[in-house]
Amino acid sequence: MFTFLKRILKFGWQSFSRNKGLGMAVIFVMTIAISALTSLFIFNELSKFLISKAQDQVDISVYFKNDTAEKEILDLKEGLYDKFSNQTAEINYVSKEKAKEIFLSKHKDEPLYLRALEETGGNPFLSSLNIKAKDPAFYAPISDFLVNSSLKDSIEKISYFASEKVINKLSEISLKIKKIGIYVNIFLMVLVFLITFNTIKLTIFIFREEIATMRLVGASNWFIRGPFLVQSLLYGAFSILIVNLFFVFILYILKADSQTWLFGFNFLQCFKENFLKIFGYQVLFAFILGGISFFSAVHKYLKL
Length: 304
Prior knowledge:
Blueprint: H1 2-18, H2 20-57, E1 60-64, H3 70-83, E2 88-94, H4 96-106, H5 111-120, E3 128-133, H6 139-147, E4 155-158, H7 160-206, H8 208-216, H9 221-261, H10 267-273, H11 275-301
Antiparallel strand pairs: 1-3, 1-4, 2-3
């Protein structure tokens, strides 16, 4: 059995090495396809990270008109606690005076802001409730409650709607890029299949005399098929190796800059943490695709 496998591997390697030009073409296209698949996975992780970051920053700030009594606002706060006790993490009341103090503290070293505030001649800030939910999904029912509450006519503005648009836009862009990635991968899969199929077909033609000799001496069907299967798997193995070396190199270069402009997202760390999953997808993608090409070509041209 060991000798049988050894000979198949030997003949498979010989077949692979003798067709370097065609082999390079297969590996090149398969490398691009696996790179696209890997990029799609990493982008998916990035989009989840960014959406999560955006959701963490979201809260509902409800601003009330100047003539709204403080007691009415505090009553609404209690009503929110009663209705959404299991959904709200915290609800903070910020009075007009407190809002002004926060502004002065935040911009104490910025004369332009302080001068602008002085020119207003009073306190332009509004009283507000800042509501933090335990899950972003809870914001919609909370905002619905607010716009239908007894104080709906006293509400000047609800800040959540702007943040909701940002999150929805992020999700929409993420979904579109995923769809494009899927279409690109399907196109590349077809291309890899065709090139691998024709490479094996040509290899069978080149080795036709040796195959005929094997048949004459009574070689089994699998002994004849085996080298071509090994050849297909070698294409996948080399492609996966090239892709992973390339990604480690590129992501290492991008590591510092990406954390700056992507809110701390580390491409290299993401790749390392998910490597086994990524590698599993790569192997599944490359070997199944190579296997389909192999079986299709062998079935059509070897007639075994």
